[in-house]
Design brief:
The protein has helices at residues 2-42, 47-61, 68-73, 77-87, 89-94, 103-110, 162-165, 188-197, 203-216, and strands at residues 114-118, 123-125, 133-139, 142-146, 149-153, 158-159, 174-177, 181-187. By secondary structure, the chain is an alpha+beta fold. It is globular. It starts with a helix and ends in a 5-residue tail after the last helix. This is Potassium/sodium hyperpolarization-activated cyclic nucleotide-gated channel 2-like isoform X2.
Amino acid sequence: MMVGTVMYALVLARITALVTHSRVSENVYKSRYDELCQYMRQYRIPGALRERAICHLASRYQGKWFDEKAILMELNEPLRREIISYNCSNLIKKHPVFKDANPLYLLELLDKLEFECYQPGELIIGIGTVGDCMYFIEKGDVEVASPGYTQILSDGSFFGELCVMTDITKRQANVRALTSCRLYSLSISSYEHVSKLFPKAMHGMETQAQQLLQNLGTSIE
């Protein structure tokens, strides 16, 4: 009887802690939401732009605010990487370039990715701008458009690789979100770090980058 009472008390305490933590993150989100609204009112941000900003906040955080980087940095490296790998499991499953990849390579790569989200109609990269990263699509559709070239990319694709994997420094196309998009970006410095450790693992993406270069009719010096 005593054991049952103790177990019940422990379970109840755990549930209470979870509910309390959930409320804390919800309250922080509400505070951030209110700050954003006050900021936009203060600077008289146009209604359409204001709505896009609010939609972005809601889509990215889904009603709860977490400082993911700070939380994960509290963990040791193996545990942090395992959690990141789990969070990115859909990304890994959908991307052919990750199929049968070296697990150590995947852990190193995933640890360098940065999550981003975009709403329909938003410009993700603009033609002629300096590129400093590439993107992997976890979920959503984007349109890649340049003079004489248009392509729709969706789950399991990546884009922006020319400025990361070749000598080209400026974007060769506009990329715009057609739907709500969940993306992961990989910076040039992170790519160089991973490619030095696992040069063969990057071969598939680098081959696609060269093929895209040919399709665009651009040459590398």
